[in-house]
What does this fold into?
Amino acid sequence: MKLPFIAALLFSVSLQADEFRAGAATSNITPELGSSINGGFQDGKALVIHDELNARCLALDDGQTKLVFVVADSCVIGRGIFDEAKKRVNEATGLPMENMMMSATHAHSCGTLQAVGQSEPNSIYQRFVARRIADGVRRALNNLAPAKIGYGSASVPQQVFNRRWKMKAGSILPTPLGVTTDQVKTNPGILNPNLVEPAGPTDPEVSFISVQSADGKPIALLANYSLHYVGGVGPGHISADYFGAFAGKIGQLLGAGSEFVGIMSNGTSGDINNIDFRGGQAKEAPYGRIQIVANDVAQAVAKAVKTVKHTDSLPLRVAQKEIELGLRIPTPNEVEKAREVMKGSKLLPRMETMEQVYARETVLLADFPAKVSAPLQIMKIGDLHVSAIPAEVFVEIGLELKKRHSPTFTISLANAYHGYLPTPEQHALGGYETWRARSSCLEVDASTKIIAGLEELFARLQ
It folds into this structure.
């Protein structure tokens, strides 16, 4: 039966509205020379821009729901910056703030956006990055066009190592806070004669979401690998580390055009790095290891993409909730002792020794609230779940979520920053990631509460 003209027109519009679309964009967030670089116990200063920093953005639209992923080249980003960027996008486009997942890569060679260690952010740079992230999202939304999407994974076991090691009895020194019960040492040194065994596993999986145009041209690829960062950059260098190198290499390997956006997000890498402490790696020149890791991961992903079936119809959903987490706040007596330790620095207000650095952290933590609100989020793309946790998540947590809800992967350092997230079992072993500081102050059972909160979101998305 021939439809009336108006009915046929409405039917046509309905079909077009349900058409799957995708768009991607990058937004430059490189700081100026002389800016603070965080990621260490001492502050760094930007002397060289080795490669530009970017916020890489991917927008998806199934005709009913729009989702946005942002991965920004930064060590850590606080909730205020992410929320400001989301608010700007929401006011300009109407996209709900909870439909945006924003995260930091955790490269240790980027401009400071959050007070960590002895690095302090510049408020002008913070506002600049919030605006640039929002601009990138709006550009990705403007670029929405008919597309196909698929997801899959590859395995790259040779580039991930657990950095927490059980050591021979008597070989672990007291912590900077005076604790003598640590059973593990983080980054113990290559070929350390006291090595016994790693204190935890690794996750070799590289998960990815691949997006192509209707005629099969690569638009973007969002990957996820549980690797802290690589490092080995030049002194005072601003660099996106292997995250940026991967973004370029995957585009080349896929034969993509200049408009393609490659994205590497940080998985559950709180206890994982790229150092083989058994001594199986050759020493590389600056950026040598970055290129090796980026190439290995990109090669594996490019090969896997060829086996993925892309579809032009895939439902999108999102769920988000806030949970309350306690903080490990120092006692007045601990604060008083810490102030005395700080007076020993000859470079005031900068601290010299590790004991002094952690004493300063104790004093600063005394002004923190007893509890914080942490955002948890899951985006569902077909059968794939992508979880967001606002912390440096230990690999055991990511592996447990994968075991329970395959296919899934977790983006760490997402939507806020609340420091390291060890499991209670890893807390009991001690080690750097458990030492109380602004970068490690969540309650011991925080991971248990976070997993329980995510389970509620998984159930909501059934």
In short: Confidence is low (pLDDT under 50) at residues 1-17. The CA atoms of residues 339 and 359 lie 7 Å apart. The longest strand covers residues 145-155. DSSP finds ten helices and 23 strands in the chain.
